[in-house]
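Trying the structure run again after the queue cleared.
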Amino acid sequence: MSETAPAPAPAPARVPADPRAPARDIAEVPAVEVITTVAVHLMSSAAVNLGLAEEGERHRDLDEARKLINALAGLVTASAPEVGTYHAAALRDGLRSLQLAFREASAVPDAPGEGPGERHTGPVVPG
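Done. Tokens:
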């Protein structure tokens, strides 16, 4: 008697999605949640590109990190009045941490006020 793996079950029939469904779903998400979610994605990607993730050096790319931090700084600065003090403070703290990590990771640090995102936030210096 030979043992064989059971045949996989057939895939369920796909029902065409209502093309208006995504618009309805996103309309239910508060703007603060969308903004903070995008900011967290930018922060996470910047951290990976700064080499702060597991196997950090393998993924390190300061040019990419600079772009992400610049985008994050613009988002945080522009959205701060809209998201409220609580959310804005957390976003600013995360941004500042990434800016400082970038400065530390750079072989030749940018001049004060010239680092990633600093045109939006002003100079970020340790201390």
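The CA atoms of residues 62 and 107 lie 10 Å apart. Worth checking whether this holds up in the mutant runs.
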